[in-house]
Amino acid sequence: MDRKSGRFLLIGIPYLWLGLLFLVPFFIVLKISLSDIAVAIPPYTPTFDLGAGWSGFIQFLSGLDFENYIWLIEDDLYINSYLSSLKIAFFSTLFALLVGYPIAYAMAKAPSEWRPTLLMLIILPFWTSFLIRVYAWIGILKPEGFLNQFLMMLGIIDEPLQIINTDTAVYIGIVYSYLPFMVLPLYSALEKLDGALLEAAEDLGCTAIQAFWKVTFPLSMPGIVAGCFLVFIPAIGEFVIPDLLGGSDTIMIGKTLWADFFSNRDWPLASAVAVVLLLLLIVPIVLFQRQQERAQEAEK
Amino acid sequence: MNSRFTWFNATSLTLGFVFLYLPILLLVIFSFNESRLVTVWAGFSTKWYVELFQDEAFLDAALVTLRVALLSATVATILGTLAAVVMIRAGRFRGRTLFSGMIYAPLVMPEVITGLSLLLLFVAIGIDRGFWTITIAHITFSMCYAAVVVSSRMVTFDTSLEEAATDLGCTPFQSFIKVTLPIMAPAIVSAWLLAFTLSLDDLVIASFTSGPGATTLPMKIYSQVRLGVTPQINALSTILISVVTLGVLTASFLTRRAETKRKADELLAGS
Fold first, then answer.
1. How far is CA A156 from CA A147, A152, A159, A205, B122, in A?
2. CB-based contacts of A150, cutoff 8 Å, min separation 6
3. Which residue in B108, B133, B249 has the most chain A C-beta atoms within 10 A of its own C-beta, making it the best mutation to test that interface?
4. Hey, are the CB atoms on A3 and B172 less than 8 Å from each other?
5. Are the Cβ atoms of A288 and B38 closer than 8 angstroms?
6. Which carries the bigger pLDDT value, residue A98 or residue A214?
7. What whole-number distance in Å separates Cα of residue B177 and Cα of residue B184?
8. How far apart are alpha carbons A278 and A170 in whole angstroms?
9. Which domains does chain A have, with CATH numbers?
10. What are the backbone angles phi and psi of residue A122, rounded to the nearest 5°?
11. Are residues B79 and A296, on separate chains, in Cβ contact within 8 Å?
12. Which of A35, A38, B57, B85 is the most exposed place for a label (fewest CB within 10 A)?
C-alpha cells in the first residue's frame, strides 16, 4: 500500500461513514417532509421514486406541495413550540451562566493542587446518565418531595409549592443537566488568565470588582461564548427534561416532534418539524463550529 | 490565574457542588428505603435490589444495553481516532470544511433530529430495526465525541518523536503504531469510556432507531418513570451510577499515573 492510497483510505473511511449516516439522512428527512401521511408501513406515500427515472421526477415535481410546512404555519401549536423552545433555551443558558461563572471562577482561583480533583468533580455528573439525573429531580420537586418537606419544616411555606410540571422545573432541569458544559469552557478560559494582568489593574487603581469587569470578564469571553453555545443549542431540541419535569402546558419543539412521530404517527409532519428546527439551528451551529476550529488553531 | 481564594469563592464552590451532588445522593440513599414511598424514610432495606435482579425484563434490557455499548464504543473509538488523525494531520484536502462540520455538528445536534433522520434512513433502505440499528446509530454520534477527545490530545503531540522513529528505520505506519498510539493511549481510553457511557445513557436516539425486541435500559427506565417514581428505579440508578463512577475514577487514576510516569521519564532522559 503506497502513501497516497493510505491517505485516501484514512480520510475516506470516517468521511464515508459520516456522509452516509449523518449527511444523507438529512436529505431523506427533507424528502419525507414533502410527502403525505398514509395508512401504510412506512406511514407515508412515496413522493419520489428514483427507479422511475425522469418521468418519476416530473411526476414528483407536479405533485409537489408544501402541505406539511403550511400546516406548521397555520397551526398555532408549532409556532408556539418553536418560540417557547427559544425562550426556555435562552433563559436556561442565562441562568446556567449565572450559576456556572462563580463556580468556574472559584475553580480557577483554587490552589493548583486542588484543581484536578475539582475538575473531576465537575465532569463526573456529566458521565452519569442524563435520564437518571433528571429523574432524581422528580423526587425533589414534587408536592410531597424533599424541597417542599424541607421548606415546610423550616416554616417558610405552609402548603406545598407546585414546582413539578411547570416551566420552573424545566429551567431547573436544564441548568442542572447542562451545568458541566457551561463550567468547563469557562474554567479553561479563566485558568489561562495571567494573574499579573489583575495585579497591574489593581496597581493602576482599580478596585477588585473593577478589575474583574475590566480584565477578567472580557478575557473570559471565549469561554462564555463556547459555554453558551453548548447549553443553548441542545436545550432548544431537548425532549427528556420538558417531558418528565414540565407540565402539559410546557411546550417545547422536541416534545412536539416526539408526539407527532410516536403518538400521531405522522412521519411527514415530524420531518417537516425537524427541517424547520434544523434551519433554526444552522446559524448557531455554524458559529459554534467556527469558534471550535479557531480555538483548535490557537492551541497549535 | 492566581490570586487570593476568598470566602466568596469557597461559598460558590460549596453551593455549586451541593447543587450538583445532592440530587444524586438523595437518589442513592432512598434506593435503600424500606417503604415504597421514595421521599419518606422508613428504614434500611436492600429489597429493591433483590426485586430488580429477579425482574427478567430489566435483565434483558441490561444485556442489550451492555452489548450495544461495548460494540458501539469500540467501533466509535476506532473511527473517531481515524477522524482525529485526519483533522490534525491530513492537512488541507477537498471537503475538509464539510468533514469538520460533520464532526462538530453531531455534538450539538438535538437528539430528536439525529434519531428521526437515522430512523428514516433505516426505513428507506429497508433494514430491520433492532440491535444493529441502535448500534450503528450510537457509533455515528459517539465517534464524533471520540474524535474531539483524541484530537484535543493530538494537537499537543510532539511530531519530532515520529520523525525520530522514521529516521531510525520505521515505516510511517510502524512509527504510528509504535510511537504515536502508546502516547495517545490515555486519550483513546477516555474516548472509549465516553463513547461507552454515551451509549449506555442514550434514550432518544435508541427510541427512534430500535424495533420490537430490542429495548435498552434507558428505554425501560423511561417507560417506568412515566408511570411514577419507584424505589426499583432508584436501585437501578444507583447501580448504574456506581459502575460509571468507578470506571471514570479508575480511568482518571490510570491517566494520572501514566502522566506522572511520563514526566519522570522525561526528567530522567533530560538529566
1. 11, 6, 9, 44, 55
2. none
3. B108
4. yes
5. no
6. A98
7. 10
8. 22
9. 66-299 (1.10.3720.10)
10. -75, -40
11. no
12. B57
What span, in angstroms and rounded, lies between the C-alpha atoms of B206 and B131? 10
Of B151-155, B196-200, B246-250, which has the strongest mean pLDDT? B196-200
Which domains are seen in chain B, by residue range?
Answer: 55-229 (1.10.3720.10)
Torsion sign across C-alpha atoms B224, B230, B235, B238? positive
Residue B91 confidence (pLDDT): 76
At what angle are helices A146-153 and A130-141 packed, to 10 degrees?
30
Q: CB within 8 A of B239, min separation 6: which ones?
A: B49, B52
A41 touches chain B (CB under 8 A): no
Which letter does DSSP use for residue B179 in this model?
I
Measured CA to CA, the distance from residue B228 to residue B233 in angstroms comes to 10
Give mean pLDDT, residues B39-68: 88
Q: Give yes or no for a contact between A248 and A170, defined as CB atoms under 8 angstroms apart.
A: no
Of A146, A238, A274, the CB nearest to B116: A274
Structure-model confidence comparison of residues A77 and A42, the more confident one: A77
State the amino acid at position B136 in one-letter form. Answer: I
Higher pLDDT residue, B202 or A43?
B202
- What are residue B44's DSSP bridge partners? B33
Largest Cα span, chain A: 79
Average pLDDT of span A108-112: 88
CA distance B107 to B148: 9
| Cell numbers for A201 | 489593574
Determine contact: B246 vs chain A, CB below 8 A. no
Q: Which chain B residues contact residue A10 at CB under 8 A?
A: 82, 85-86, 90
pLDDT category of residue B248 using cuts at 50, 70 and 90? confident
Question: How far is Cα B271 from Cα A151, in angstroms, rounded to an integer?
Answer: 63
- Asked if B223 and A135 count as a contact pair (C-beta separation under 8 A), the reply is no
Candidate from A30-44, A176-190, B121-135 with smallest mean pLDDT: A30-44
Q: Rounded to an integer, what is the distance from CA A45 to the centroid of its chain?
A: 32
CA atoms within 13 A on the CB side of A30: 7
> Smallest CA–CA separation between B271 and chain A, in Å?
26
Backbone phi and psi for residue A273, each to the nearest 5 degrees, phi listed first: -60, -45
Is the pLDDT reported for residue A52 higher than 60?
Answer: no
Give the 3-state secondary structure of residue B221.
helix
Within the 136-155 window of chain B, which residues sit less than 8 Å (CB to CB) from chain A? 136-137, 139-140, 143-144, 147, 151-152, 155
**Spatial separation of the C-alpha atoms in residues B151 and B33, rounded to whole Å:** 45
Digit-coded pLDDT (tens) for B86-143: 888 877 788 888 888 888 888 878 889 999 999 999 998 888 899 999 999 999 999 9
pLDDT of residue B70: 96
Percent of chain A with pLDDT over 70: 89
